[in-house]
């Protein structure tokens, strides 16, 4: 078996802490809840978990607004609970990746409280202050410049006023962040997921941006991937990642291939990989997500193949369909109907077949669907609550709600479905966000007991990734000119080639290609495939076919 970095053939399971498992009946998931469920994750076979922020926070953005980087928020447990979780995970052979938010802090962080005391504060320059705002809008609500009455200036908060941006130009800020990260590394964490990392470096001058529908200008072109960001990340690598051999993944929405290569090319010593969002933004959501829309399959194929071809040999890809900011993939690209499980397996095959580190989001291994919110009082996320208000100015209530219900991040944030018991086994209290309907039949316990479940299929795919060198490291090559709903590609190494074939349609498709000759099925999502014999792909069928090279 080829020996490379552990994370290259790994499957990393994202845990949205608030919604995974509540151990103390307060309706909110917590660290002991994760520890309790580690055996489940060991059975699934994942290599690592990524836990969303658990640090002290006012919770404006569910923990992505940190007020103390070194203390576990009591809502989620204690520092000792974290130590126990880490030790137990390591005992089970599961690595632990923590989520760190260093583009901004909470406005309650002592650094910001000090910074805002006066223009003369020694920490004034730790944040970004101006006398006048420009036209930039914030991600969640209103202007990106927030007036501070006490000191009479505006500070930059690209997401919201509750999340002031740190000034990375200031070396003291960088030092403080690196030493904080090093302390987590010393505790034994195995890596970091770096929140909105492409936004760290701000321009010298803040020019107005192009106006958008929101009535504000955009800042993305001036802020994202500003050249200085690579210097900061390289410095972070030298100070923290290299000394502790950490795996890192940076969230980089809007990142181009060229930039992603800079972040992930090993010789540049920046990050292990980034998350790019082009494939999940094809329904329009990278530009403006609050409209109905489905991801077009033809465009999806082009985008996914391009990232594979241009990054997987020279840099590295982080592969994902789902995370805590995205609606559920089965609802977006598969079906919620009778073929839900088959479509979930097809989507899994398509992603696991690619070259890169695979990220699996809680519930995806069960084929969980969107939540189908039916009233605004079921929504929790700050971003969608604001969007809903704005949509109400444009659309009748029913339409505004249906757009928000389709696109809200809350779709990913409803509780994990553990069993058919009350609240799906998530909590013995009242969950902070409603539990999805249908958990009596769609739940982890049921799927663990069934050999043809989505869970069992993921388990098999994870095993294959671990054992099959070609799946882990073989070169990617797309099969050209396939019928629109069919995505087919090859993975090739000197000993074996794999052909991955996925039918994204709810209909049967006829598809014959010479590449199938001499192949046998390594894995498939239906029992009696007619593909090799008749060239027929069943609705949502997926296959991994192998052919060994003659020696
Ligand atoms: C990232 C997180 C998201 C959060 C935002 C601001 O995009 O994934 O959940 O709201 O950063 O920190």
Walk me through what this model shows.
By secondary structure, the protein is of the alpha/beta class. Helix content is 30%, strand content 16%. It has 17 helices and 20 strands. It has helices at residues 31-44, 79-91, 110-115, 171-187, 220-223, 228-241, 257-264, 297-311, 329-333, 340-352, 382-394, 397-407, 410-413, 444-448, 454-467, 469-473, 531-534; strands at residues 11-15, 48-51, 55-56, 68-72, 95-100, 129-130, 145-148, 153-156, 191-194, 247-251, 273-275, 318-320, 357-361, 475-478, 486-492, 496-503, 509-510, 520-524, 536-537, 542-548. Strands 11-10-9-5-2-1-13-12 form an eight-stranded parallel β-sheet, covered by helices on one side. Strands 14-15-16-20-18 form a five-stranded antiparallel β-sheet. Strand 7 and strand 8 form a beta hairpin. The two termini are 18 Å apart. The model has no long low-confidence stretch (mean pLDDT 97). The structure holds alpha-D-glucopyranose. The site of alpha-D-glucopyranose has 9 residues, from loops.
Concise description?
This protein is α/β, with parallel strands linked by helices and 551 residues long.
Helices, strands, pairings?
Blueprint (H helix, E strand, L loop, with lengths): L10 E5 L15 H14 L3 E4 L3 E2 L11 E5 L6 H13 L3 E6 L9 H6 L13 E2 L14 E4 L4 E4 L14 H17 L3 E4 L25 H4 L4 H14 L5 E5 L5 H8 L8 E3 L21 H15 L6 E3 L8 H5 L6 H13 L4 E5 L20 H13 L2 H11 L2 H4 L30 H5 L5 H14 L1 H5 L1 E4 L7 E7 L3 E8 L5 E2 L9 E5 L6 H4 L1 E2 L4 E7 L3
Parallel strand pairs: 1-2, 1-13, 2-5, 5-9, 9-10, 10-11, 12-13
Antiparallel strand pairs: 3-4, 6-8, 7-8, 14-15, 15-16, 16-20, 17-19, 18-20
The chain binds alpha-D-glucopyranose.
